[in-house]
Design brief:
Oligomer: single chain
Radius of gyration: 23 Å
Strand order of the largest sheet: 1-2
Strand content: under 5%
Order of helices and strands: HHHHHHHHEHHHHEHHEEH
Distance between the termini: 25 Å
Structural class: mainly alpha
Length: about 350
Amino acid sequence: MNGTGTRARSGLLNLLPLAALVCFLWWAPANLDGYKLRVINLIAINAILGLSLNLIYGMAGMFSLGHAGFMAIGAYVSALLILTPEQKVTMWILEPIAPWLLNLHTPFIVSLVLAGLAAAFVGWLIALPVLRLGGDYLGIATLGFAEIIRILIVNLTPLTNGSLGLKGIPAHTDLWMSYGCFLVILVFVARLMGGNFGNVLRAVRDDEVAARTMGIDTFRVRTLAFTLGCFGAGIGGALMGNLITTIDPKMFMITQTYNLLMIVVVGGLGSITGSVIGSVLVTTMLEWLRFVENPITLGSLHIPGIPGMRMVLFSVLLIAIIIFRREGIMGTREFSWNWFFPPKNAPRALPDEGGRGR
């Protein structure tokens, strides 16, 4: 089968899981309880966040620890745009809300896009001085900026309501919204990395000096990748805020970035498929392991609940993955229908002089 036929077959086969997903999203709200629906929503949101962080870390090779800060920007921008004036007046009790913000109100979709753009703009501003660093220095710098963003949110009370956070956010995030956004970002990242920009980004990641020698503006490429990753973080933060319906600065501490790093590392650095698989595994495991924090009775044996134990167990699992499969589940590979339908005219390995395949 030629390349055109293979692409057509892959396109048709891609419709099967898409149709299954649509059927599931239609079936789930009427048959699953609120807790399960929230976990399923979190899988899609974490997949968006994992893809955006993987674009920065795995595909561009920039070690960033500032994703939680850009999530916070997206969450607050979206919430401030969809809260009604009545809610804002009631909520701001420490200081009056900024007058220009009181009557600012937009539909949720508009707030979602503006949340992503706001996070991308701040990411671009941070990228200009920070991306000239590299390695561990870049990670420390982005971590510092994320903490600066969180401290600003705490202290800019007329804009953010300070440490009290925002409550009563309309719950616009449902399965259709979260998975719709996830599919849009998934297709965008896949097309981006499958095109010329993806090849350029990999070249910069693998050998920046060689890429610069070939005439590639490596700083511009890295800045664009960082900005796009921040846009995804803003979208994910906005969706999460509208799912939980309450946000405060403590939600966006460094532990939030660690959870996203788990998704990227478990799935595989540089793998789009790995980010999706990692989001499913990490989200479900973090929820399933909650039982170890509750008292457990096994016959005459009573084990008291230990707060935080699920993170201990999950960290042990993560360490095991790093030790025994450092590249993650997918490594840098991507899912392909050719795994199930290999091309008939695929070249075979030629035997060497000893009669063995190369």
